[in-house]
């Protein structure tokens, strides 16, 4: 555990209960320094677009966990938008899908996208999450 | 003098051919000598060919075929009698060809008619043929008709009279043609008929007709132009075939397939809801359990048990929604009855009176065109309730909501239109998701994304249709076709 801790992680999910739980896991296990949370894709895209105008290294997350089913802008739309702008950040941002969907259509679609590092099916397993944070 | 050669690839056994150019007919030597004319005289006028050479019984059919071939490239094959110089009739089969001919002078595309001698003579069999035609027409329910555009008269054969249930001595007339069709098919047929009688465009269509006893039924209607020898269209000839039985089967098949498609879609939706929404609760539960196991602190454990309560309540909500969806699928055979739009609206207005007053919503309605519909009353109320509350929920922040509701008839189906002056919706972005479950598009706190999903399911379940028109910041119109 001498590796440096992840500075900033980002969770995009509309399920309050899930967010509370995951936050708890991250905090108790001290998986990262800071955490930002968005309730849907649109909110987070707005954040990233604004960030582009005024790049601040510490505001750019190292890792993003995104849900698929969300109001206003869903996960797919976010990924599409985000892929277009992510190179402008000059930083490696890892993108994970975290969804309760076990629909093969969703899983295959995620596999077909280069920008997706992995697909986690809810319920997330705490150990698995820990490993991802450590290896990122 | 034009030298005429046979087309590059002459068809075997052709005894002669005609080349058709600039309204003049050039005959081959073989053809001319076969009917006893001197081979030198290769050019003959169309008039002579139509009126002198061809037997008068075959002449008008040949003329129609000929002009359709020249004008519209419609091929034909016709057997006909041609009078030889000695006054004897010989039987030929005439077929068409567009062969690119190697003409001596130019390379223009020419049209040809080939004449073959018939192997056996048919005149003796004419009566027998007539019998076959009659039988065939009767068994296939095909009646033929002719409209004389010059005399403005129409003629039917007995089959047509029989199909349309008129007496044998009934005289059809052009003026009465409107009574042979239901309103909506009359316009369609009229258009095709006019096109045929003006541009000479033959038609073949499926349409509805009306019998004398006002029974609607499906026919296949074909028509083609009839020309005089000046290439003018003087009439339209065609057939009606009674295809009601087949068409009824086709339509019922289509309906069944639509129902299956709709049910399949609902099933898919259902699977999606189960996969996404039920699983999200159960996975939260598992996570809680995992956390409970990994922590020792009592405080934390208590907090986690609190969240179990939250999960249970949202799980309950989801199951209620699912239940609503399932209810729609199973209650389509609930009895329909005659409902009045005005009455349903009144009930809805009463049930959400507070919301309406609080939001200062004005609801204008006009059901003067049609007020009664055969429907499941609870559905109609639910549809109205959902759409009205939706309009209020998504009202424009700068103006009080005004909702216009009207009903009318379009293509013999009842339509209900609900238009508001709310914030509208970006259809290009959300159009395909608008009626999905748990889809919300606005940052509205009380948006759950269930209303429109239920509404659409109710309408679908009763073979209806819902469409939406909208402009962001201006209006949204929901159009329901019952």
Automatic annotation (TrEMBL), chain A:
Residue stretches making up the Response regulatory domain: 8-136
InterPro entries on file: CheY-like_superfamily, Sig_transdc_resp-reg_receiver, TCS_response_regulator
Keywords recorded for this protein, A-Z: Phosphoprotein
PTM annotation (4-aspartylphosphate): residues: 67
Name of the protein described by the UniProt record: Response regulator
């Amino acid at each position: 555990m001498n590796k440096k801790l992840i500075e900033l992680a980002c969770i995009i999910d509309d399920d309050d209960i899930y967010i509370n739980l995951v936050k708890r896991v991250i905090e108790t296990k001290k998986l990262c320094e800071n955490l930002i949370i968005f309730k849907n894709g649109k909110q987070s895209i707005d954040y990233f677009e604004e960030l582009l105008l005024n790049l601040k290294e510490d505001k750019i997350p190292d890792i993003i966990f995104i849900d698929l089913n969300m109001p206003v802008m869903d996960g797919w739309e976010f990924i599409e938008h985000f892929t277009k702008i992510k190179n402008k950040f000059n930083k490696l941002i890892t993108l994970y899908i975290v969804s309760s969907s076990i629909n093969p259509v969703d899983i295959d679609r995620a596999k077909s996208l280069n920008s997706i590092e992995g697909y986690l099916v809810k319920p997330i397993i705490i150990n698995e999450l820990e490993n991802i944070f450590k290896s990122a | 003098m034009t030298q005429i050669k046979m087309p590059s690839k002459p068809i075997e056994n052709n005894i002669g051919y005609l080349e058709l150019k600039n309204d003049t007919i050039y005959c081959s030597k073989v053809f001319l000598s076969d009917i006893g004319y001197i081979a030198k005289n290769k050019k003959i006028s169309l008039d002579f060919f139509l009126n002198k050479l061809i037997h008068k019984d075959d002449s008008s059919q040949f003329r129609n075929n000929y002009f359709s071939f020249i004008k519209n490239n419609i091929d034909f094959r016709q057997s006909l009698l041609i009078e030889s110089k000695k006054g004897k009739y010989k039987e030929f089969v005439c077929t068409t060809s567009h062969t690119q001919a190697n003409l001596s002078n130019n390379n223009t595309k020419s049209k040809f008619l080939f004449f073959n001698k018939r192997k056996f003579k048919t005149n003796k069999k004419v009566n027998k043929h007539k019998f076959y035609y009659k039988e065939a027409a009767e068994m296939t329910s095909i009646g033929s008709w002719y409209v004389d555009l010059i005399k403005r008269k129409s003629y039917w054969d007995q089959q047509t009279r029989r199909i349309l249930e008129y007496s044998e001595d009934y005289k059809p007339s052009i003026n009465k043609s409107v009574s042979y069709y239901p309103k909506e098919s009359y316009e369609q047929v009229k258009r095709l008929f006019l096109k045929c009688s003006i541009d000479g465009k033959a038609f073949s269509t499926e349409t509805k007709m009306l019998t004398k006893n006002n029974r609607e039924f499906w026919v296949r209607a074909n028509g083609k132009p009839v020309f005089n020898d000046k290439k003018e269209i003087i009439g339209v000839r065609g057939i009606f075939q009674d295809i009601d039985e087949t068409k009824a089967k086709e339509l019922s098949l289509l309906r069944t397939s639509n129902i299956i498609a709709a049910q399949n879609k609902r099933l898919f939706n259902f699977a999606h809801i189960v996969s996404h929404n039920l699983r999200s609760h159960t996975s939260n539960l598992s996570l809680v359990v995992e956390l409970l196991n990994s922590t020792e602190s009592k405080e934390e454990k208590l907090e986690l048990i609190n969240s179990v309560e939250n999960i249970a309540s949202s799980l309950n909500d989801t199951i209620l929604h699912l239940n609503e969806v399932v209810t729609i699928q199973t209650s389509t055979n609930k009895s329909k009855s005659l409902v009045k739009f005005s009455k349903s609206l009144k009930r809805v207005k009463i049930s959400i009176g507070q919301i309406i007053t609080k939001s200062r919503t004005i609801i204008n309605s006009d059901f003067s065109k049609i007020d009664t519909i055969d429907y499941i009353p609870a559905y109609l109320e639910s549809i109205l309730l959902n759409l009205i509350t939706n309009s209020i929920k998504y009202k424009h922040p700068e103006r009080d909501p005004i909702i216009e509701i009207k009903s009318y008839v379009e293509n013999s189906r009842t339509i209900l239109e609900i238009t508001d002056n709310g914030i509208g919706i970006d259809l290009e972005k959300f159009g395909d998701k608008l009626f999905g479950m748990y889809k919300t598009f606005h940052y509205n706190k009380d948006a759950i994304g269930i209303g429109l999903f239920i509404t659409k399911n109710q309408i679908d379940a009763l073979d209806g249709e819902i469409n939406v028109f909208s402009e962001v910041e201006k209006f949204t119109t929901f159009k329901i076709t019952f």
